[in-house]
């Protein structure tokens, strides 16, 4: 686990991260003409919901942030998988 500062300014202990693409929707209609890439952090492996750690319209910026978070988690846990969970 590692403490990260999230997009909302809050510091949270983080067990693992994922990268997702987010599309806006209005009245149930998804707008595929615009998207954000986001790094989502989870406090535990069993947590069903996470929080946005970082978001950007740039895939490159988001993927670099994701890679950085995975690396930091792998260093803090001493695991080579980088997800903060054993067996991945």
How does this structure look, described?
- The chain has one domain.
- β4 and β5 form a beta hairpin.
- It contains one helix and seven strands.
- It has a three-stranded antiparallel beta sheet, with helices on one face.
- The longest helix is centred in the C-terminal third of the chain and has 19 residues, at 59-77.
- With 88 residues, the chain is of the alpha+beta class.
List keywords for this structure.
88 residues; alpha+beta; two-stranded antiparallel sheet; 1 helix; 22% helix; disordered C terminus
Question: How is the topology of this model organized?
Answer:
Elements: E1 2-5, E2 11-14, E3 16-22, E4 25-26, E5 29-30, E6 36-42, E7 51-56, H1 59-77
Antiparallel strand pairs: 1-2, 3-6, 4-5, 6-7
Outline of this structure?
This protein has one domain (2-77). Helix content is 22%, strand content 36%. The protein is built from 1 helix and 7 strands; from the N terminus they run βββββββα.
